[in-house]
């Protein structure tokens, strides 16, 4: 079959490769090329245990104080607030224990075997060298702050996530970069790391093209519909037709999804990173710094600090506050760190109100499919999402309950 994949991030490229391996004629169309957005700028962690959403009980009470603190990892472009309010009400409405359990059950199915899924996707390609199997660690300044986070660890344990709790001194004997700045460290097993997310996705895309796939650089301007089903993709290079179209455009998916009748409550969640070039000393494992809710990840030739949440839409430029927060945190954690240069980046994460990605057919005939909305775990869940989409298009039943991810749950019947 002729299949178009809209979007060249990790999710879109994964869809394209698995569809290609199934024997289909696949074209990727993207306005800027592979890994030009969040697939380049993420924290690089294969977070198999990312089964607790941001919307946990008590968020509504904590959020105002976080927004007013320069040292909290939550930011808002205040001029964007009027547009944000309808989404925010839906988003905060999911800050319940029942929803955390629903999210956890669904996402543990999608994420638990992420390292194996990445290895299967990259097997036989030049992308293999970027995959590592390091533990994902969480550092807490005091034992009390770890104990205050007990809710999240109980949920991860219930979902089957394996982790060890060690004191900071014991951890520092293996990974001395942080010294004794953390009193408690949690080591999450069966996780992994991508040492250069941008180059990794580019290598996968190069493999796709080498195997006969087509990569078209064009902006998608609209879609053509007939009787609630898509008939064409309108681009700056003209109309494109296919038997099936997969939408994996990340935060740029909302407008098209709504035209397809998938009226998902959806926002762009802006993420930030800074990179310290040729940093020394270099940590061995990715470390989630619990106090700042950002991740320090050792990458090829640099140390990346990525995280922070800001709501401000797709159009406005970056804010200085998140960059300055990351700088302050690093100076506190690693006062003796030396580096040659510093690079700043801001990108967009796709955030549905319930934090669950949309994976599946948008219409009864399967003319179009959604594969977006992974929020913080696009890199982690991308390869498996691609395999699921390929199976669905081939008429196979994936070994996963897709009901929580079904795009049609947003369609008015």
UniProtKB/TrEMBL annotation:
Keywords recorded for this protein, A-Z: Oxidoreductase
Q: Which SUPFAM superfamilies match?
A: FAD-linked reductases, C-terminal domain, FAD/NAD(P)-binding domain
Pfam families hit by this protein: DAO (PF01266)
Cellular component (GO) terms are: cytoplasm
What would you give as a GO molecular function for this chain, any one? oxidoreductase activity
The chain positions of domain FAD dependent oxidoreductase read: 2-392
Q: Does the keyword Ion transport apply?
A: no
> InterPro entries of this UniProt entry?
FAD-dep_OxRdtase, FAD/NAD-bd_sf
Source domain of life is: Bacteria
Which Gene3D superfamilies does UniProt cross-reference here? D-Amino Acid Oxidase, subunit A, domain 2 (3.30.9.10), FAD/NAD(P)-binding domain (3.50.50.60)
Q: Does the keyword Heme apply?
A: no
What is the protein name stated in its UniProt record? D-amino-acid dehydrogenase
């Amino acid at each position: 079959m002729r299949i178009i994949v809209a979007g060249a991030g990790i999710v879109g490229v994964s869809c394209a490769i698995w569809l290609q391996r199934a024997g289909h004629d696949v074209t990727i169309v993207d306005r800027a090329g592979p890994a030009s957005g969040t697939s380049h700028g993420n924290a690089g962690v294969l977070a198999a245990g990312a089964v607790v959403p941001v919307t946990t009980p008590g968020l509504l009470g904590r959020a105002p104080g976080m927004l007013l603190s320069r040292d909290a990892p939550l930011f808002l472009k205040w001029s964007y607030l009027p547009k944000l309010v309808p989404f925010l009400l839906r988003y905060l409405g999911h800050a319940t224990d029942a929803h955390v359990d629903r999210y956890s059950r669904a996402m543990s199915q999608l994420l638990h075997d992420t390292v194996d899924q990445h290895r299967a996707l990259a097997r036989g390609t030049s992308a293999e060298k970027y995959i590592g199997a390091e533990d994902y660690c969480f550092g807490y300044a005091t034992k009390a702050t770890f104990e205050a986070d007990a809710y999240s660890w109980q949920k991860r344990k219930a979902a089957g996530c394996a982790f060890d709790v060690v004191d900071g001194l014991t951890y520092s004997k293996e990974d001395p970069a942080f010294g004794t700045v953390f009193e408690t460290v949690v080591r999450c097993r069966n996780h992994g790391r991508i040492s250069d997310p941008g180059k990794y996705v580019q290598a996968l895309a190069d493999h796709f093209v080498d195997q006969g796939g087509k990569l078209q650089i064009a902006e998608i301007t609209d879609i053509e519909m007939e009787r609630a089903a898509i008939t064409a993709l309108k681009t700056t290079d003209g109309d494109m037709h296919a038997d099936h179209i997969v939408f994996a455009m990340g935060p740029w998916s909302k407008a098209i999804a709504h035209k397809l009748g998938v009226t998902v409550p959806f926002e762009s969640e802006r993420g930030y990173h800074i990179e310290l070039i040729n940093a020394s000393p270099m940590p061995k494992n990715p470390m989630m710094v619990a106090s700042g809710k950002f991740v320090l990840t050792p990458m090829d030739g640099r140390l990346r600090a990525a995280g922070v949440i800001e709501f401000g839409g797709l159009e406005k430029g970056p804010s200085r506050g998140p960059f300055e927060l990351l700088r302050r945190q690093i100076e506190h954690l690693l006062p003796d760190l030396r580096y040659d240069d510093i690079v700043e980046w801001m990108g967009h994460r796709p955030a549905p109100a319930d934090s669950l990605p949309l994976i599946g057919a948008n219409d009864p005939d399967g003319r179009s499919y959604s594969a977006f909305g992974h929020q913080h775990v696009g890199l982690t869940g991308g390869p498996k999402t691609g395999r699921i989409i390929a199976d669905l298009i081939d008429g196979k039943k994936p070994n996963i309950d897709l009901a929580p991810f079904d795009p049609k749950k947003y369609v008015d019947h």
